[in-house]
Amino acid sequence: MLIAIDANVLTRKNRTGTEWYVFELLQEMMKLPLAAEEKIILYTSAPLEDEVFKSLPAGWSIQILKWNLKKGWTHGRLSWELTRRSPDIFFSPAHEVPLRHGEAKIITTVHDIAFRIVGGVYSKKGQKRHAWATARALKLADRILTVSETTKNDLIRVYKHPEDK
Question: Is the pTM of this model over 0.70?
């Protein structure tokens, strides 16, 4: 079973909550043994500088997907890779599901929906972008992870999303 993970947020110089979530989650996941048939590939647009990623456990690898444009890596380059070599599972820990993802089952994390419930936090453009990405993630994902019961309840209440997902 091939599990692909979008680890691109870890290429950012300044880390905020989402980046730290991804870093800590991957660090803990690497402590767990994989079954003989399992493989995990981390997709990034540049090398990961953290020491923990210099020597990966058995079954883990990093693939750098080069992209010469300033924007569009997730929906352009990552989409292309997932379509070309579809994993069994694709995990997007930052709720952005690529436009194309082959036949992969999708797991994503939704951190919050503050753009919908807290006024003045996001620009109009930011609100639209997050609303589009979140609605799309909820529609496409086979499983949704939330970082709190509050976010889970917000998704059920605001988006009328089924609790069993």
Answer: yes
